């Protein structure tokens, strides 16, 4: 994927411009969460629990389709993280 194809897709479809900025923020939060989980930090669990429902709702709002597999994966991942929460710093 290139910047040109992304720009052409924006012009041809009715994609809301704030969704691109939201995607950048979610990507940065995902990176921070991944680093925090590798370091076994509690803030990563709380961060993930906070931004995943917001992300799922925004995807539903923008596309009109709810990603059930994403919600199931997130729920399983949260359950695993909560199991190890006491061992984290």
TrEMBL record:
It comes from the Bacteria. The chain crosses the membrane at residues 16-38, 68-85. Keywords: Membrane, Transmembrane, Transmembrane helix. This is Uncharacterized protein. The lineage of its organism: Bacteria, Pseudomonadati, Campylobacterota, Epsilonproteobacteria, Campylobacterales.
């Amino acid at each position: 994927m290139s910047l040109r194809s992304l720009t052409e897709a924006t012009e041809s479809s009715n994609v809301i411009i704030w969704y691109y900025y939201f995607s950048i923020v979610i990507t940065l939060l995902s990176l921070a969460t991944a680093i925090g989980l590798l370091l076994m930090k509690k803030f990563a669990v709380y961060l993930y629990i906070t931004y995943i429902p917001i992300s799922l709702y925004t995807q539903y709002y923008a596309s009109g389709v709810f990603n059930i597999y994403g919600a199931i994966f997130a729920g399983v991942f949260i359950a695993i993280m909560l199991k190890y929460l006491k061992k984290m710093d």
